[in-house]
Automatic annotation (TrEMBL):
Residues 1-20 form the signal peptide. Keywords: Disulfide bond, Glycoprotein, Glycosidase, Hydrolase, Lysosome, Secreted, Signal. This is Beta-mannosidase. Residues 34-211 form the Beta-mannosidase-like galactose-binding domain. The gene is MANBA_4. Exoglycosidase that cleaves the single beta-linked mannose residue from the non-reducing end of all N-linked glycoprotein oligosaccharides. Residues 826-897 form the Beta-mannosidase Ig-fold domain. Residues 432-594 form the Glycoside hydrolase family 2 catalytic domain. It holds the Pfam family Glyco_hydro_2. Its EC number is 3.2.1.25. It comes from Cryptotermes secundus.
Length: 898
């Protein structure tokens, strides 16, 4: 064995150990630079690694505008039809060459590429979710080396795969709808499925090295430490921490011996194992350490609002027999148990479907996550990820579903989810498609799933693995014309999600549940052969529900379900966001631009019809005049619809109908964030600005909520919803107002116990009678509305106030524009926070404050104003003075638009 002290000075990012050397080939290593060129050499520009072709061409000025500007998704599509070659030179010193094994490791290649080192073909890539390792000892040379990664256009590659497959039978769908302005056959590639377009996003089928590239060298009896996994199981009074250590060496290395050590930052004894490891497959070595930790030494990890998110450092070190440390990794881990409970529902049909953490049933509140940018290299921007995840937490969310058409997110994403207490439902990256099952595809998927499960394994936030998005439903309901070959496609479905992915997940991770699809009936789908008769059954599993025709403000139009994992309505982002990528004449509903940004077939007409059900869109003289109101109305409609649905699902927690429906334990609306500036279902705009829906979410997801509703029989019902784990004594105040007065016509208070982790009905009675008794006349539904507050024993608000409008907002009596002014803006207690006092002369509805030039959030927005003065806070993201803020705020309320 050769033991050299490696000193590869400027070349090496890290070269700590005598037995290994690491040479980064990212752009940060400056011995040479990356360049990228197209096939005929007409374009050659500097490149950045990690990065991607669109970013490089933009930086070089080949693309002269922001890629999201106007129609650039189409104008710049040529980029994705080219075959690009990324290349660089690098210098390798003698000491490095002397090592026994040398590997070139690509942590993320997007997507179909051939890799050449010194003009020798060293391997191919075809899965952007896989880390590739190529042995290059025989190819790498002292002095200058040349690395080339030759990408094939992913559009062409997908088409070719499709054609090849279609010789036996086509894998459907043959393309996305025209309205997506997208590309076809992405299902044949292991690439972010939404990169070929989606119903909320553009096609930018990128190419590039989107994660780091590293050259590793090491001696023959050691290996690269690739992954460390950790999961804790509670057995009686002891946590059994299972630590997996995964190493990689050359295929010809028959054994490695060493000492494997794990240290937890608690005063428990470190575990050390001396072992000789044999490969479990050529070049792959692993071992497992077990640590026992008495239960009382550990503080539990809890989801947001149910406790703290205590994390502990776990360090793992790998040494050779001479105690040289040649690999080490540190993880932050948490101690919690997780169960997906699918048990018979008491005195009803079907099974429950909910998460239990630390033995506590959790009502999952949250949303669905899509990639924060269409370019993978931009999707992990720390500021944006932090902004989006902390906005989720601010809205009382405790779960996000990382949806299967995007990406396995960055390490930072999951780390923040751990810290913020946001449970992650992790789909595997398959969505809205059938998929090939040839052996290369399945092999690649196996590798992808193995690597991703190992990478995400130690995160306490990750609680569910799910095979795919909507593919069980797609097959059952013949979305893509597969029904004539149902058995064939069903067999493929089972081959992929049940026979390939599931065993890998279960072997790698015995602590978390795997469900095959979403929506699914869970165990019941499995019993029915994986494609249930009705994957949308309200008696089992989760449900996705979309209905753009029924009155979305009427709770009686939503299905009872065990778990609502998707439901949503579209809106447009703010004028500010749209203006950033358009010219003024684009900003009308009738423009080619607005049509272009609407990918959901019929979306803009649907949106108009939804709005017209509830709000009075008057005849504007010009489309320019209508546009801001349309956006405002679309956001009101979205906020009110999702509020209605979410409160319905939350009230369903303690409901069990005579036919066994109810016991709802999840409400994840579609969708949290945006990929660009366009029509979508999101509550956060591209960049993180809150739409009205996100402000509403902060209210409707609050741990304690007073929730009024009207039954189909016209009864007013008032429910108290609590996610708290202990009972609380409360005082409920119901007020009735006329639209024309800031003084209530009626007010009544009553004491109630807010029962822990449940929903209590505290009132039920005819609404019309209630209003009449309150002093509202015959047409009460037009002239009056109800307002609800819930106070704790000491008189503090314990729940956000809530409201109920008994009649249509299009036909209100005495509903006139209020004059709302800003009385003062004063600095708040913390830097860049401000207290804004506003004044009104009348009741005002959906009061919307806009500080369009100053990024930040208000403490409330889109609210019902029933007092003469009202205070809201503003949390600015930039330094700003009170005067600047005051000068920038505009205020609008519903009656202004009538
Ligand atoms: C569901 C999701 C997404 C889609 C959304 C809105 O189908 O899984 O595929 O964007 O609805 O249509």
């Amino acid at each position: 064995m050769i033991r050299t002290i490696t000193l590869i000075a400027a070349l090496l990012c890290t070269s700590i150990y005598s037995e290994t050397a690491i040479h980064s080939l990212d752009s940060s290593s400056t011995d040479s630079a990356w360049t990228v060129r197209n096939a005929n050499g007409s374009i050659e520009v500097p490149a950045v690694v990690p990065g991607g072709i669109y970013t490089d061409l933009r930086a070089a000025g080949v693309l002269t505008q922001d890629i999201y500007y106007r129609f650039n998704d189409i104008n710049y599509r040529w980029v994705s039809r080219e075959n690009w070659t990324y290349s660089r030179n690098f210098i390798v010193e003698e000491e490095f060459i002397q090592m026994d094994q040398i590997f070139l490791v690509f942590h993320g290649v997007d997507t179909v590429a051939s890799v050449y080192l010194n003009d020798k073909h060293i391997g191919n890539t075809d899965n952007m979710f896989v880390r590739y390792s190529f042995p290059v000892k025989s190819v790498v040379q002292r002095g200058e080396n040349r690395l080339e990664v030759r990408f094939e256009s992913s559009i062409t590659a997908a088409e070719q795969q499709y054609q090849k497959q279609a010789l036996t039978y086509p894998v459907l769908p043959t393309c996305v709808p025209d309205e997506y302005r997208g590309e076809c056959h992405v299902n044949h590639l292991r690439k972010m499925q939404a990169s070929f377009s989606w119903d909320w996003g553009p096609a930018f089928p990128s190419a590039g090295l989107w994660k780091k590239v590293v050259l590793y060298a090491f001696v023959s009896d050691v290996a690269i430490l690739q992954e460390v996994t950790a999961s804790a199981k509670l057995i009686d009074n002891t946590w059994l921490l299972q630590i997996g250590i995964f190493l990689e060496a050359g295929k010809d290395i028959l054994q490695i011996s060493g000492k494997f050590e794990a240290i937890l930052e608690l005063d428990v004894i470190p575990v050390t194992e001396e072992a000789v490891l044999l490969p479990n497959e050529p070049g792959q070595f692993n071992t497992t350490l077990y640590m026992q930790i008495p239960k009382d030494k550990v503080e539990l990890w809890w989801p947001n609002e149910l406790g703290s998110q205590k994390l502990y450092n776990l360090s793992v070190r790998v040494k050779d027999n001479n105690d040289y440390i040649y690999g080490q990794m540190s993880l932050k881990i948490g101690f919690r148990t997780i169960e997906l409970v699918q048990e018979p529902v008491e005195s009803g049909e079907g099974l429950t479907f909910y998460i239990k953490i630390n033995n506590v049933p959790i009502f999952s509140k949250g949303s669905n996550w899509i990639p924060s940018h269409v370019l993978p290299e931009k999707s992990a921007d720390p500021d944006i990820i932090y902004t989006l995840l902390s906005s989720a937490k601010a809205a009382h969310m405790n779960m996000l579903r990382v949806w299967g058409g995007g990406m396995y997110e960055s390490d930072l994403f999951y780390q923040l989810a751990d810290e913020l207490g946001i449970l992650i439902w992790q789909d595997f990256m398959f969505a809205c498609s059938l998929y090939p099952t040839n052996s290369e595809f399945l092999q690649s998927v196996k590798k992808e799933v193995t690597q991703q499960v190992r990478r995400l394994h130690h995160h306490p936030s990750v609680v569910i693995w799910a095979g795919n998005n909507e593919n069980e439903a797609a097959l059952r309901d013949n979305w893509y014309g597969s029904s004539s070959r149902f058995d064939l496609y069903k067999a493929d479905y089972i081959k992929l999600y049940v026979d390939t992915i599931r065993p890998v997940v279960l072997a790698e991770d015995s602590t978390r549940p795997y469900i095959v699809s979403s929506p699914t009936n869970g165990i019941e789908s499995e019993r029915e052969g994986y494609i249930a008769e009705n994957p949308y059954s309200s008696l089992y599993g989760d449900v996705h529900y979309y209905n753009y025709i029924a009155d979305a403000w009427n709770p009686n139009n939503y299905p009872n379900t065990r778990f609502a994992s998707e439901y949503g309505f579209q809106s447009f982002p703010s004028l500010k966001s749209l203006s950033e990528v358009s010219i003024p004449s684009d900003l009308i509903m009738q423009s080619a631009f607005i049509d272009h940004r609407q990918h959901h077939p019929g979306g803009n007409s649907e949106l108009r019809l939804e709005i017209l059900q509830h709000l009075q869109l008057r005849n504007y003289e010009t489309p320019e005049e209508e546009f801001p109101t349309f956006i405002y109305f679309a956001q009101i409609n979205q906020a009110m619809s999702i509020k209605t649905a979410t409160e319905f699902y939350r009230r369903g927690r303690s409901l069990l109908t005579s036919d066994g429906q109810g016991v709802t334990m999840g409400a994840l609306y579609w969708q949290l964030n945006d990929i660009w500036q366009g029509a979508s279902w999101s509550s956060l705009e591209f960049g993180g600005k809150w739409k009205m829906l996100h402000y509403f979410a902060r209210n409707f997801f609050a741990p304690a909520l007073v929730s009024p509703s009207v039954t189909t029989d016209g009864d007013l019902q008032i429910h108290l919803i609590s996610d708290y784990l202990e009972d609380k004594e409360t005082m409920l105040r119901v007020s009735v107002y006329r639209w024309n007065s800031l003084d209530p016509v009626h007010q009544r208070s009553s004491a109630h116990t807010l029962h822990n982790a449940s929903v209590t009905k505290v009132f039920s009675g005819n609404l019309q009678t209630y209003l009449n008794n309150a002093g509202c006349e015959q047409n009460a539904v037009k002239s009056c509305f109800l307002h609800f507050s819930l106070f704790s024993e000491n008189g503090d608000n314990i729940s956000p106030d809530n409201f109920l409008f008994p009649g249509s907002l299009k036909e209100l009596t005495d509903f006139e524009a209020a004059t709302i002014t800003i009385k003062s803006v004063t600095p708040g207690r913390e830097a860049n926070t401000f207290e804004i006092t506003i004044e009104t002369n009348r009741v005002a509805l959906f009061v919307w404050l806009e500080a369009s030039d100053i990024p930040g959030e208000f403490s409330d927005n889109g609210f019902l104003l029933i007092t003469q003065t009202w205070k809201v806070e503003f949390n600015a993201k930039e330094e700003v003075t009170s005067e600047q803020l005051k000068g920038n705020i505009t205020i609008i309320s519903l009656a202004d638009t009538y």
